[in-house]
Task: structure prediction
Amino acid sequence: MDKLEVIQSLFDQSLVSVFRVFATNPDKQFYLREAAGVADVPVTSTFRIIHKLLELKLIKQVDVNKFKLYQFDKNDTALLLAGMLREKNRALDEFLAQAKQMPGIRLIILHGQETEKKASVLLLGENILQDRLRDLKTEIMAKYDFNINYMTLNSDQYEQMTSLGLLPKDKKILYEGG
Result:
């Protein structure tokens, strides 16, 4: 069992599902029934869980006229817990762990910003096995519903694209090998 599975096993799965609805949509406000539907948890259970999350200050209540809406509370505790439960990072981490073991890959760069459902990466090296990368991408998509767009380049191609301004400045090195 990995760390995330241990943490999740300590909590009621319904509680984790409801909290994840708020954590993955931190700027969105939800009605009780809407949160229950997205989490696929009965409304009565969601009501109980929401009150527990309010007591723990992991979400906040927003009153609009006579309606009660609930939203992720962006405090340190809530952000820490959300980070621990975030599965999408695990998708990119798993991709990296397997890709850096492939022959020929010397550098992996996050290209642009990682989003909720996808990340774009550049893989630099020589003679990179395209079939294995395609299989890995398909495996990650099936397991996590997370799309990893990738482009393989050799060092010369990367330098040319950079000098032409075809690559954004917003990039992060995820792996650098020998």
